[in-house]
# Entry
Amino acid sequence: MPLVNTVDMFKKAYEGGYAIGAFNVNNMEIIQGITEAAKEVNAPLILQVSAGARKYANHTYLMKLIEAAMIETDLPIAVHLDHGDSFELCKSCIDGGFTSVMIDGSHLPFEENIALTKQVVEYAHAHGVTVEGELGRLAGVEDDIKVSAEDSCYTKPEEVEEFVSRTGVDSLAIAIGTSHGAFKFTGEAKLRFDILEEVGKRLPGFPIVLHGASSVIPEYVDTINKFGGSMPGAKGVPEEMLRKAASMAVCKINIDSDLRLAMTATVRKVFSESPAEFDPRKYLGPAREEIKKLVKNKIVNVLGCDGKA
Ligand code: G3H
Ligand code: 13P
Ligand code: ZN
# Structure
């Protein structure tokens, strides 16, 4: 099956009350772990690439690795640009075969966000590519840009209809209290489900995206802390909150930090138990297996998109 855009997968996810996992990819082992998991449980997938990942791994290498996964799995897979920050970057990804892009104008004034998003939508739609926009601002770190909790802001539901109708976006990321990275909450986890509900009422049938949705799995944090790392206070979004979001208008749930934690915890454990190990396959292989286990669990127990490919 060729790569797909997100139209069909979001329509089915909205109607079925589940979400598609959008997993960030940087290298072969991550791509293999994610796609092997999805194949075993027959799930549609979004593989997303940040500007930093594209710089790290190279566009062509990533596309060819994803092409290999497509051949191996025969699943509906969308390749998506995560947090595109300019028309030029989005255009370059579209010209290079991505089937979906995010244009993140969330830091811009409303009118400028609309103008930039609309420009990307016009080019993307002319090429059969879907577009995710963003309203509201998440705290946390992306590509070395740190947004403090004070500079973050919840999405204003009264803006969403105008933004969607004037830009023509296919999905909308909103800010309801999640943040990027491994330190999402200092106290109890709280999400503004009232905002999600209001956005859902104002945009019936329209797919909503949740960024910063890693659960920061405690077992991985414990392993990292046990084997020489230091991540005190790391905390993510509880799985039951993600299940609730997926049953509402959220059709795409973004996960990167949990993949990083799974990989890092596994590599630290291998080196701690076998300090003389120097064959990369002996630590990247187990890391790939752990990613596969993690993604399978997300698909079956959190997202609910198993069997939906
Ligand atoms: O939202 C951001 C993702 O976690 C990607 O992170 O820009 O460091 O690759 P990155
Ligand atoms: P996490 O840091 O919670 O994994 O969020 C990833 C994300 O939103 C990518 O766009
Ligand atoms: Zn994000």
Remarks:
- The two ends are 11 Å apart (CA to CA).
- Residues 24, 50, 52-53, 82-83, 142-143, 180, 256 surround glyceraldehyde-3-phosphate (ligand 1) (CB under 6 Å).
